[in-house]
Amino acid sequence: MHNKLAYYSAFALFLSAGHCVADDRIEAIVKATIEPVMQQQQIPGVAIAITVNGQPHYFNYGVASKENGKAVTEDTLFEIGSVSKTFTATLAAYAQATGKLSLSDKASSVLPDLRGSAFDNISVLQLGTYSAGGLPLQFPDDADAPDKMLGYFKQWKPTYAAGTHRQYSNPSLGLFGYLAAQSMDAPFDDVMEKILLPKLGLKHTYLTVPQAQMGLYAQGYNKEDKPVRVGPGALDSEAYGVKTSAADLIRYVEANMKPTRLEDPMQRAIAATHTGYYKVGEMTQGLGWELYNYPVTLDTLLAGNSTQMAMEAHEVQWLTPPQPQPENVLINKTGSTSGFGAYVAYVPSKDIGIVILANKNYPNPERIKIAHTILSALSK
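Predicted structure:
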């Protein structure tokens, strides 16, 4: 009850401030929203970054490591899990914008090693939208290594006709990124770290954290509160491998909301990731990102980010032609590794966005409730 009273008091304080968004007023609602969740879920540390009208605000709570007690800051590096898929999608869209790749190409035409397999009939776009025909959430254990994954894809048999069902999948989005790098004639990690991230203006985002930055890399904690960090796997960089800070990730959000500051091919790449390709319920599938008409209810966001949406196949309704980013839209993505939980959401028409990074994998509904509460207050 005390927490609820604190929340409503903070909310009233925030609204009474009108459109003035000084840090202390935003912090009132952020603190009242995040602290009860940290306590309930036993999350050691959280970094929240909020952008309002192009101005970033940072709110840091707890510790990056329980072992050394180092406080979280906006520069602490967190694993962002599947939020990495939005970077991978941006790279693939950039490859298309620069004439290296066509999303309509068949996968086996980009990667000849796949000829004679199911991928003769599966497009790059279908891989990028989880609609290849039922690729699983994860690689089987015996295929989850770089030298095993091509063999797995060659023998894989679809459950559904390509393009008919959405089945959320690391192998699907991972292969999408792998093909993008193939089209650019370089390893994925190289094109990401040497081309994409610099062009987005990101200087503190990594696939492999450099030794000099390891002191900023948060320690993750699993459900048993044991220290853990992400390990290697097939297409790990492409599907869930990015480590970044709240400060850099909110820059990425701002680049997505105002891409006109970027070079033309990157503007077109971002537009492609924000394009709606099909709908499942109230969620519209972009590339990496997932879109909702705005304003959006909490229940709608929870349904679109639910375990059922991630674990089950869903028939899709393709948008023909694909739908450019609507004027009023909320764009979001969740991400998790064994020891970390992330959520990113933004509303370009309101010029507001939020990044929530934690060094524990806590339930998606809690992340979405936090973000929805804060964004709703900011959009008043």
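Summary: Confidence is low (pLDDT under 50) at residues 4-21.
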